[in-house]
Amino acid sequence: MPSSDTITTWNTFTAKTLIKSADVNNNFDVFRGHLLPVDASAAAAADNAYDLGSSTYRWRNIHAVGGSGNVPSWQAYTISSASFSTATTSADIELYSSPAKGMIQGIVFCNGSNWTATGMTNITVSLGIAGELERYAAATSINTSTVNEPFSIMEMTDFTATTSIRVSVVGTGANLDQLTASTMEIHVLRGALA
After folding, report:
1. pLDDT (tens digit, 9 = 90+) per residue, 14-71?
2. Domains (ranges, CATH) in the chain?
3. How many CB atoms lie within 10 A of CB 147?
4. What is the pTM of this model?
5. H helices of the chain, where?
């Protein structure tokens, strides 16, 4: 098994030429080493038939983007007060599009600083869908103190269709276009049924 965590060489063979068994063995050694080379077009030979690691030989970290989304994982989204700048007291935007069979298992609102606006007495944020803007996370005040507010839920967004997951901001006493520049993170534990 290679001790280095980088692939330094990969032996390439030419048709109708002799190859050394040591070179073949070196190529196969890489597959049990620290890195697993994957061709860009690689695919499993059968559906739902292979494991990555085992209960006794686990992978330490997985760094990936995308995937099937079946395994729940935390996704972080940053929203800006500028996204809600409108001459009304409430507005909502799409946070992400949930696939069919999408699941939401947890939400955490985190604002690093208070959202403020001249004349505004309260500012709340909530998470839901069109017509039910507080379906997944109830209105939470974000102007009086910094918030690290967790919501624990277990709900499927829709079994057959994609769903627009929306974040809503509501101000009391002034329109949202009076908000000072602010951001907040919304962390969503999301996955999907297989």
Report:
1. 888 887 888 777 776 655 555 555 555 666 667 767 777 777 777 777 666 555 557 7
2. 1-63 (no CATH), 73-192 (2.60.120)
3. 18
4. 0.67
5. 21-30
